[in-house]
Amino acid sequence: MSAYALLRSTAAEQAAALAAGDVSSRELTSAHLERISAVDGAVGAFLDVDADKALAAADAADAARAEGAVPHELAGVPVAVKDIVVTRGQVTTAASRILEGWVPPYDATLVTNLRRAHMPILGKTNLDEFAMGGSTEHSAFGLTRNPWDLERIPGGSSGGSAAAVGAFEAPLAVGTDTGGSIRQPAAVTGTVGVKPTYGTVSRFGVIAMASSLDTPGPMARTVLDTALLHDVIASHDPRDSTSLADAPRGMAEVVRAARSGRDLTGLRVGVIAELDGGEGYQPDVVRSFHEALSLLEAAGASVETVSLPHLEYALDAYYLIMPAEASSNLARYDGMRYGLRVEPATGPVTAETVMAATRGAGFGDEVKRRIILGTHVLSAGYYDAYYGSAQKVRTLVQRDFAAAWQRADVLVSPTAPVTAYRFGEKDDPLAMYALDVTTIPANLAGVPGMSLPSGLSEDGLPVGFQVLAPQRADDRLYRVGAVLEAQLEESWGGHLLARAPELEVN
User: Which of 181, 216, 219, 392 could form a disulfide with 157 if both were Cys (CB 3.0 to 4.6 A apart)?
Assistant: First the structure.
């Protein structure tokens, strides 16, 4: 297999080639490192690449295979990790100056799982600083660009992970999803992203933004690849108090069975009325969504419209709860214990002045904006009116979902109202926040969600289709996604990314 074909093969195909002895993990990892070297200067997906560590892990995977001690199907297949996930011995910054150069002494649990599976980590991917943004324009270390059009955003905050997968720099990547930060980047880059049920993937070692919402998850180019990575990183972890003891596993088996049968007979699909187009939705997005619905019906699913009436308040509630939790979590960056320390240029050097100087220099504008908002809504006299009311809305949204599951097995909507926009087009923060309207309900409710590509807009940009399922029913996402993906690929004559423009290499 040529290097070109190897890079464009799926992670499952790469795993099969490794198992057959057609390629070694060192060769596979080297090919991806060479691809990163060739195109990442234009894409900007990675903040740190440690080739020596990646190749050492690849050699360990090859040795384990030679000894017959392969722990997982993906052993030897490389992966990229969002730089908000702690990696021992490798720089972890959350794309913030306040953590610039920080090398953690421990691994996040999900990274431990990757290492146990003998999956070489190619590097750490770019994001909006502390995962606060939807475009990866808010990184302290530069932009990440969409491989489909380098003048457009790759989504956020996991834009680096999505771009790495979409640019064939990595077959698999890990992201985090607090309000859509896996699903929205997947939608605008023509890739697949899954936000698992909250508690399925441990948050231990994932730098916290909003603890009741943050959810690590897999990103890849196909539903099967995403499922394979899901099965690696999902695990119970006593170090995470929110970790589920019965985390859903076995997703790859679900996908393979679904693609084989392509039968959704008896499945009830609910179209979320409040997210089915309207003001702010691009017509191409709505068209692609309804074309995909017709394919689900052709596979035997029944489709009806379902209302979640309190979703009209979900966006406002989210942008009170999230910054409130973020302001509390980011209080630890005080210039005293680790990370950046800046002393005041004039005046006394006290804990207060060092903290003010450090936070002023270390945090970017978007992070400061959310800290200020979050601190305000938690302050005396405003807590009940803002934060308390937002939590009540969250409960109402959760009840809406509970009622909807009585009528539907899965709920669907467009993943994002628009396709990838050009850099600088959404410089108004409120305009950017409004684009989260389709994804944040899943985070408020703690339910799993998937985005997979459903087609292209008239100007040739990917459109995403979102599937939501009840808590712990992640298998339904993979079943629906696998069948829809198979139907779409049949109509396209291959994978959507095959229609992406070629990136010029150095």
Answer: 181
Helix, strand, or coil (residue 377): helix
Specify if 347 maps to a domain: no
Output the CA–CA distances (angstroms, integers) from residue 211 to 44, 324, 377, 420, in the order listed.
28, 10, 17, 28
Rounded CA-CA distance 465/481 in Å is 9
Q: pLDDT band at residue 232, thresholds of 50, 70 and 90?
A: very high
Q: Which amino acid belongs to residue 263?
A: D
* 134 Cβ contact list (under 8 Å, min separation 6): 128, 155, 156, 157, 180, 181, 184, 432, 433, 435, 436
Does a cis peptide bond (omega within 30 degrees of 0) precede residue 288? no
- Helix, strand, coil percentages in the chain from 3-state DSSP, rounded to 5: 45, 15, 40
Residue 107 domain boundaries: 3-259+406-499
Task: Evaluate whether residue 303 is within a structural domain.
Answer: no
The residues carrying an active-site annotation are 82, 157, 181
Closest CA to 209 of 181, 173, 241: 181
The CA dihedral of 465, 471, 473, 475, to the nearest 10 degrees, is 50
Q: Residue 174 in contact with residue 161, Cβ under 8 Å?
A: yes
Residue 156 clears pLDDT 80, i.e. is over it: yes
Please give the single-letter amino acid code of residue 478. Answer: Y
CATH code for the domain in which residue 450 is found: 3.90.1300.10
Whether 477 maps to a domain, the answer reads yes
**pLDDT digits 0-9 by tens, 79-136:** 999 999 999 999 999 999 999 999 999 999 999 999 999 999 999 999 999 999 999 9
Vertex 250: Cα angle to 248 and 254 (nearest 5) = 110
Nearest to 36 by CA among 188, 112, 147, 140: 147
pLDDT tens profile 358-390: 999 999 999 999 999 999 999 988 999 999 999
pLDDT tier at 426 (50, 70, 90 boundaries)?
confident
pLDDT recorded at residue 429? 86
Once rounded to an integer, what is the mean pLDDT over residues 343-347?
Answer: 92
Predicted confidence at residue 168, as pLDDT, reads: 98
Phi, psi of 79 (to 5 degrees): -145, 150
| Total number of domains in the chain | 1
Residue 276 domain flag:
no
Q: DSSP class of residue 215?
A: E
